[in-house]
Amino acid sequence: MLVVSLWSNAMLQTSSSSPFPPSANSSPIPTGTCWLTIPTVVGNPGLNRSGLSTMAEHLSQSELNYPFKLLEYFNGFRMSKVIFSACEQGVFDLLMQSQKSLSAAEVAWKLGASEDGMERLLDALVGAEVLEVELNQGTGLFIPAYYSNTDVANLYLAKDSPKSLYDMIIYQSQTIYPLWNNLGDAVREGKNQNEKTFGLSSEDIFSAIYRSEDEMLKFMGLMNSSWVIDGHDVVTAFDLSRFKSIVDVGGCSGALARELSKAYPASTVTVLDLPKVIQTAQKHFCQSDDTIKLQEGDFFKDDLPAADLYVLARIIHDWKEEKSLPLLRKIHAACNSGGGVLLIEAMLFENHRGPIMAQLFSLNMLLQTEGKEHSPSHYTHMLNGTGFSDVQVCRTGKSYDAILALK
Ligand SMILES: C[S@@+](CC[C@H](N)C(=O)[O-])C[C@H]1O[C@@H](n2cnc3c(N)ncnc32)[C@H](O)[C@@H]1O
């Protein structure tokens, strides 16, 4: 088996649970792992993709006896829909509000659903270990069943929980799911499927994403809910306390800016986004005790405010390099001396063989945008090419990672 490590001599770890940087065939990288990259050595980002992919990406041998994992993959969309439908129908909210566990008939009656359909949905959620069930003694074949939320359902699936992922689920169900129905065409054509799925031009991606006020709110809700679970980790991946003025470029609802403000109370944090996004953020996402500022602007067309640190969370992955490189150059020019840029993205492994979540996100970018996910060395290359240096990479081990570079 031939293994090539782009990382050998290329990365110095600044802190890690492992003494070694990830090699090209490494399975999951240790969590909370950061490297200081040496720009002159981190070179051609295509090097490790040159057909040297003999490392095992095949399913385990046991699948030959029976394809358990394959069948699980085939049925993945069904499982997603079970969660999505239960969320959309308010199952988790009802069970959270209820003082006692409820029968399928009670849930169906309260939510205006069929008893048979609801019972099957609730049973599938029990099978998925998202709900719990108590079985009472019955007569004959009838065993009364009473359903309740698990702690996980209360925490993440009920709408009113402070850690609710409800908005993420609604967007996945109503926008991402129909887009993924056109994955085959996206792969064949190599372009997003906004036109085929929603009848909108595939050129201006944010006109498509913000095609109605309702869609804009749903998208902003999706963006917002990611940072409920990932925000703290990405803003504390590095100590950013020395940056006294921070601009979250394309900061959307302000969720990440609030996390920054919480972690660095001595810094001012400004969200810069398109006027209609800022207005919607003011109307729907602002909190009475907000410490963040909101500023309208177009990061491609307008001057950027001077700042010590620019945060670009899930921005670079939206665009072709002919747009993202000039944006990074513009940020470098506006940045105060001694300042920097923090990219937050789901990073691919160097050899592009994982993590599966980043690979799926990259396909999602194909379906919805003009961009893609990249590896650490690719981001390093982009940052060095636009004037930044001292690039440090931190994998959080969760959905999103952080890359800090200095002016
Ligand atoms: C994928 S979202 C990321 C949002 C946010 N950074 C986050 O991670 O939650 C991209 C953001 O860039 C904003 N955006 C797109 N084009 C922009 C432009 N030309 N000027 C300013 N913001 C823009 C969008 O409105 C959106 O909020």
Short description:
The chain is of the alpha/beta class. It has helices spanning 68-74, 76-89, 91-97, 104-111, 115-127, 151-157, 166-180, 183-189, 194-198, 205-209, 213-235, 255-263, 275-284, 321-334, 356-368, 376-385, and strands at 11-15, 33-37, 131-135, 145-149, 245-249, 268-273, 293-296, 307-313, 335-345, 389-395, 401-406.
Tell me the quaternary state. single chain
C-alpha Rg (nearest Å): 23 Å
* Strand percentage: 15-25%
| Discrete helix count | 16
pLDDT averaged residue by residue? 88
**Main pleated sheet:** 9 strands, mixed
Q: Which series of helices and strands comes N to C?
A: EEHHHHHEEHHHHHHEHEHEEHEHHEE
Low-confidence parts lasting 5 or more residues at pLDDT below 50?
A: 1-30, 38-56
Q: How many beta-strand runs?
A: 11
Helix content: 40-55%
Structural class, from helix and strand content?
alpha/beta
Query: What is the first-to-last residue Cα distance?
Result: 41 Å
What is the general shape?
globular
Small molecules in complex: S-adenosylmethionine
Strand order of the largest sheet: 1-2-10-11-9-8-5-6-7
What topology emerges from the helices and strands here?
Elements: E1 11-15, E2 33-37, H1 68-74, H2 76-89, H3 91-97, H4 104-111, H5 115-127, E3 131-135, E4 145-149, H6 151-157, H7 166-180, H8 183-189, H9 194-198, H10 205-209, H11 213-235, E5 245-249, H12 255-263, E6 268-273, H13 275-284, E7 293-296, E8 307-313, H14 321-334, E9 335-345, H15 356-368, H16 376-385, E10 389-395, E11 401-406
Parallel strand pairs: 5-6, 5-8, 6-7, 8-9
Antiparallel strand pairs: 1-2, 2-10, 3-4, 9-11, 10-11
The structure holds S-adenosylmethionine.
Pfam families: Dimerisation, Methyltransf_2
EC number: 2.1.1.4
Protein name: Acetylserotonin O-methyltransferase
